[in-house]
Amino acid sequence: MRRFGRQCRGQGKVFVTLVRQTEKQLLERGSPLTVLAQTAQHCLRQATHLPARQRERVEGHLQAALEAHHTIRRQSQRLTQGKPLRQCKIVNAYDGTIAPILKGKSNCPAQFGRKPGIISEPTAGFIFATHLPIGNPSDASYVVPLVDKVQATIARVKAPCKLAIHSVASDLGANDPTVRQTLHARGILTLGIPKTVEPINPQPTPQAILDYLNAAGLNRKRTPYQVQLACACGHSRPVVESHIATLLSRGAGQVRYKGPQGAAIQLGMTVLAHNGATMVRIRQQRLSKRAQKFRRLLGLRHRNVNQINNSKN
Amino acid sequence: MRLFRHLQHWLTGCGPRLRVADFVPVMHPIRQWADTFPWAALVAALERSFAQRFPKDSSRGRPPVSLRVLLALELLKHEVGASDEHICHRLRTDFAVMYACGIEGVQWDCPREHFVLPETLVQFRHRLDDALMDELLAIQAAAAMEEGLVSPAHLLVDTFPVEQGSQRVTDATTLYKAQKKSSTSSRPSRRNAPRKRPR
């Protein structure tokens, strides 16, 4: 998992003071909002001369105002009274769905943001699905929703060949027995999710393959060859960092649209654009040696008819 | 005569429609990128979703900009790293962008027919939601799998942090504003302060 790196220092205390001052003023100013909104709701119920549609609309606005104030108050208290915001950072407190990304560094300021998850294929970096949860949940909680989305995508495919997920690889953060059990129940190998910091063996012995299949209860569903490929995929798992780097180069590192919906739209559009560029690379055979070999092993070898004809002639 | 036909736009101010595909080379990166998308399925998904969520009350008013154009502009924006204004401006002048947006022909005497304002792009984005984005991604992935370009057999899962709604205080303007605000809020106001009597 990537995390925010070390941030620049200095000038921080000034801005924390500023945030604290301004937020307190805003909270004090907004404190009578709850009473006012409730009074307005009461008046609205008595105003029977208004059309039902208009009353419903105004009621919705009032309810949104009440909820917004509650969210702002909670979030700004997290910002101003907690420890997370200590250095040169001014955070938009009016978005209740962002959360401090606190894991990893103890000597650095925590940043507020989102943590999207992606599920991609290891050869060319085509991203099948994204998941953008609210807050900062554990990495293990991303695996099953992402796999669900990919299986829903597979159900859309009209091709005669039957596609299926054979294995899923991730980092140590996704090491969770419940996730493993869920994936095994669906016939998916979890060899690529490490249990320790030791690197995964890319070429397991036949005995190790058999032991693993028996332990996972998948010896009737998955073949030893698929286990070998799963090991190779888990061994080369860090290649996903290059897929993330490509997304970041397309501007996914900072969400410019507003709110959780804006974040989802920007991430989705970036991933769609990235997938288009990936498909161009696949069609033009502009892939790394590792990717070419993996595609060959998966039976995804691209046959360029024109090239074969040219070589014959 | 043939030369006159090609220069007719400048000589007479009108002429036949120019075919956009003729002006964009086959190996142009934007053309190749645009050719990978299953546009018909994507636009159909958008239309279906919009028809359910934003039903039209009347048929009056200006005809809307095509969803194909808006979706392509939004995707191109992320592909080339441009702003709304920049990509809308390029749509007026860049044949490759016109090709990516599915515009087949342009005519010199009505050059405003394919203008898109940045505000229109913003309104289009407001109509999108998470479920629709997931559906668009699923359509693209399904098309790639049907074509045999990718396989979901072995997958990688990972997460990465994204900054949201934050403003890094590194530029001089923000620093100045913050310091000014801080100094005004901490300084006691002169009006309320009691005057000192001169001794």
Brief characterization of the structure:
Chain A has 313 residues and is mainly alpha-helical. Helices cover 53% and strands 9% of the residues of chain A.
Mean residue pLDDT of chain B: 80
Structural class of chain A: mainly alpha
Query: In sequence order, what are the helices and strands of chain A, one letter per element?
Result: HHHEEEEEHEHEHHHEHHH
Largest sheet of chain B, in brief, is: 2 strands, antiparallel
Q: What would you note in describing this structure?
A:
The complex is a heterodimer of chains A (313) and B (199). Chain A is mainly alpha-helical. In chain A, helix 5 links the parallel strand 6 and strand 7 (189-192). Chain A has two domains: 12-113, no CATH class; 114-313, no CATH class. Chain A is built from eleven helices and eight strands. Chain B has helices at 2-6, 8-12, 20-23, 29-34, 39-53, 67-80, 84-93, 95-100, 118-127, 130-147, 172-186, and strands at 18-19, 105-106, 154-159, 162-164, 166-168. Chain B has 199 residues and is mainly alpha-helical. Chain B has a domain at 14-55 and 63-147. Mean pLDDT of chain B is 80; it is low at 166-170 and 189-199. Chain B is globular. A two-stranded antiparallel ribbon of chain B has the order 1-2. The longest helix of chain B is centred in the last third of the chain and has 18 residues, at 130-147. Strand 3 of chain A pairs antiparallel with strand 4 of chain B.
